[in-house]
């Protein structure tokens, strides 16, 4: 339970217990629970959607689709504290810098956000907003539930399948102490949620896995492995992939 709480309080802004110590082993052992943490985020997003799309109209307040989509995106960012968004921007700054491997890693570690990161995030946000707005209403709750679920499962794939690029860092703890059965446990947890949701959910799972492997392999060729920032970017990219699947 302590490992689950460690993962929950690191990946989200949901505080359920006060933890004064964050051991590397606890970080690593929390990885197997990432899909479950994603499912919790998904449930909250579905509830937010229910309030905005069903309850507010019931009391006479109607939100246009584009406003509803904005509130859902803001809710997602608030729930995670923008952790994966920050990782995405740092990753885009690094891999699009056109520099050497070591320089890319330095750029990703820099707390300042560059032009590549800002432009990439703006495009990502616009794309996510457009997709959420255009997904058929009957499929949107399922997409909102699965979006953080598969995004965190993709993170597990990156952590367990690919090497870590730095000699240290929080991401190193995830990779080093995850354990050899972590991917199997995370896969089983993910399938328990995905299979009952039908064909479209299963297709999105396969699409997320393929994109995760392709992107992670591309980054590995650039810098020799993945980093904590890249784990976050994997989540953001695969959430877009899932929304694309649910668009049809």
Automatic annotation (TrEMBL):
Obligatory cofactor(s): Mg(2+)
GO biological processes: cobalamin biosynthetic process
Membrane topology (UniProt): Multi-pass membrane protein
A Pfam family the protein falls into: CobS
Enzyme nomenclature, EC number: 2.7.8.26
Subcellular localization: Cell membrane
Catalytic activity: alpha-ribazole 5'-phosphate + adenosylcob(III)inamide-GDP = adenosylcob(III)alamin 5'-phosphate + GMP + H(+); alpha-ribazole + adenosylcob(III)inamide-GDP = adenosylcob(III)alamin + GMP + H(+)
GO MF assignments: adenosylcobinamide-GDP ribazoletransferase activity; cobalamin 5'-phosphate synthase activity
Pathway it works in: Cofactor biosynthesis; adenosylcobalamin biosynthesis; adenosylcobalamin from cob(II)yrinate a,c-diamide: step 7/7
Keywords attached to this entry: Cell membrane, Cobalamin biosynthesis, Magnesium, Membrane, Transferase, Transmembrane, Transmembrane helix
Residues annotated as transmembrane: 33-52, 67-92, 113-132, 144-165, 177-195, 201-218
Keyword Membrane: yes
Cross-referenced InterPro entries: CobS
Gene Ontology CC terms, in alphabetical order: plasma membrane
Record carries keyword Protein transport: no
Enzyme class: transferase
PANTHER family in UniProt: ADENOSYLCOBINAMIDE-GDP RIBAZOLETRANSFERASE
Function according to Swiss-Prot or TrEMBL: Joins adenosylcobinamide-GDP and alpha-ribazole to generate adenosylcobalamin (Ado-cobalamin). Also synthesizes adenosylcobalamin 5'-phosphate from adenosylcobinamide-GDP and alpha-ribazole 5'-phosphate.
Family named by the database record: Belongs to the CobS family.
Protein name, entry field: Adenosylcobinamide-GDP ribazoletransferase
Originating organism: Pelosinus fermentans JBW45
Gene name linked to the record: cobS
